[in-house]
Amino acid sequence: MRIIIDGVSCESAPGEFVKTVADRNNISIPSLCHHSALPGLAACRLCVVEVTPSGGKTQVVTSCVYPASDGLEVSTKSERILRLRKTILKLLISRAPKAEGRLKEYCEQYGVVDSFKPADFDESCILCGLCVKACDELGNSAIATVMRGIQKQVQTAFDEAPHECIGCASCAKVCPTGKIIWSQDDGSRTIWNKCFELVRCSCCGKPFATSEELTWLTNKSIDQNIDLSLCPTCRARKTAKAAISPVR
Ligand code: SF4
Ligand code: SF4
Ligand code: FES
Which of 20, 29, 33 to mutate to test the pocket of ligand 3 (most atoms within 8 A of CB)? Predict the structure, then answer.
């Protein structure tokens, strides 16, 4: 099956999301709440595109959840889409004027500077839900959205250091606005008001994970041969070495 994105014919599986097909073909569609491992949120609306199904009408859809169909034509940068994307960015940055990360970069790229909120409005979360989904998918559910309306925010239970948290920082890494602050020094990592001691790699000696993360990995790991005393770099080096060693 094939779809046409910005004039480029792209191979696609039936039902595959348009954004996934575009990503695979290096066609860039701006997005904030989409992560290839955590699809389906469709909260930010930034990934809008125009689609025209074979023999159908043109409409605006969110490409991260719109399924491809044979002969579908997609436009990611029409005048209408660029105008819409700019408006969406304006609304997002108004909700989160202190945002950093990808949201700030997109605003710069699209020339969006003004915000409807006063300069002292201290918010950087667009409530996309990606952090909560990441933590839920890991099976930890240490954070959630709490309160309602303009007071809605991502928090831990009772705003306390969550005992379910393993200090993996996945929530912070997927956040598109830099809202979730974490820090790490030579021996510890702090996130959500909880301080974790870091375990050192048995080969290079660098601190690389919290012991809670390693316990989690031990419990979840399908491959029991993974050496969790090694950091990812040393582990990859060891695997590469084993792959090129002559078979005795
Ligand atoms: S750092 Fe804690 S809250 Fe964040 S994803 Fe990991 S377990 Fe969840
Ligand atoms: S903290 Fe970041 S990832 Fe979580 S909802 Fe807010 S913007 Fe999204
Ligand atoms: S990336 Fe599609 S709605 Fe956010």
Answer: 33
